[in-house]
Amino acid sequence: MISNKKISFKFCPSALVLFLHFILLSLSLFVFLSSNAFSQDRDSPPSPHFTLTRAVMCEYIKEYEPANIAVLFPISLGRIFCFTAFEEISQNTLIYHRWFHKDRLVATNRFHLKSPKWSTFSTMQLRVADKGPWRVEITDDNDNILRTLRFSISD
Amino acid sequence: MKDLLIFLSSLRWQDYVDIFLNSYILFRLYVLFRGSRLIRVVPVVAMLWILNFLALSMGLVITTWAIQGVMAAAAIIFIIVFRDDIALVFNSRNPLSFFWGIPSRKLSTPIEIIAETMFELGRKKIGALLVFPGKQNIDDHIQGGVRWGGIISEQMLVSIFWDKNPVHDGAVIVKENKISQVSVILPLSKQNLPSRYGTRHRAAVGMSEVSDAMVIVVSEERGRVSIAKNSEIKEVKSVDALGEILAGHTGNVKKKGLENWKEILEFGIAGLLCFVLITGVWFGFSRGKETLKSINAPIEYTDIKQGYDIISVSTNTVDLQLSGSTPLLRALRPETVKVLLKLGNTTVGPNIFNISKDNIMLPPGVTLKKVEPQSVELVMGGLVQRKIPLQIDWSGTLDNTLILESAVPEPAFVEVTGVSPGVEDIVTLYTEKIPLESLKETDGGIIQAGIVIHPPSLKIADKFKTVAIKYVVKQRSSNEIAP
Question: Which residues of chain A form beta strands (DSSP E)?
Answer without folding.
Answer: 9-13, 40-41, 51-62, 65-69, 72-74, 79-87, 93-101, 104-113, 118-125, 132-140, 145-154
